[in-house]
Amino acid sequence: MIPELELQRLERARAGTLALIGGLSQADLDRRPAADGWSVGEILDHLLRAEASNRDDIRTLIELARSGREPYLHRKLTTTGLAPAFVPRSLLPYLSLPTSMITLFLPIAVRELMVRSRLLPASASTELWPLRGRPAGELRSQLAASVAETRALLAANAILDYRRMTVQHPALGANDVHDILRLTAAHEERHQDQIRELLERRKP
After folding, report:
1. What is the pLDDT of residue 121?
2. Which of 30, 79, 174, 179 could form a disulfide with 168, with the two C-beta atoms 3.0–4.6 Å apart?
3. What is the distance between the alpha carbons of residues 29 and 40, in angstroms, rounded to a whole number?
4. Residues with Cβ < 8 Å from 163, sequence gap 6 or more?
5. Which domains does the chain have, with CATH numbers?
């Protein structure tokens, strides 16, 4: 059955993002707060990449389930992957097992809080690092289309049991498709706070 509640939350989060950037110009989207800080446009591109990455995982799980194989994916900490910002990347491959043992027993509500809170700094995987200077209209249309694509994928396979499909990541624990959608929405809400902060700084 389609995870409707979690999907609706993601859709609300996306609508909130689009509302936040509704009146922004191309210059507004491209303006960076600092040399190493992301612009609003870069944050939007990052959100698109993150949702697409999670949707690809869900698609892979669906393919595994439809082929009769176990719908399970196991990730490890790598020097280029998602990680706590305060941990040197060179150490990450050695921390997969101990980190997994900790997050395995954390409830989804706690894992969601970890993703949602900006008090817990994280370093994005290199594949989710954004492009700079993407056209405003392109970003807006893709943000709307992306969440619709996620819904369409889930609806097309609604007969499958999404609770049986799991992605295990050392930093995020073991998450079924319902959990993945919750974490995707929480991640977007986290970056909405970042966008609001950037917009607030620009006020005279």
Report:
1. 82
2. 174
3. 5
4. 176, 177, 178
5. 4-202 (1.20.120.450)
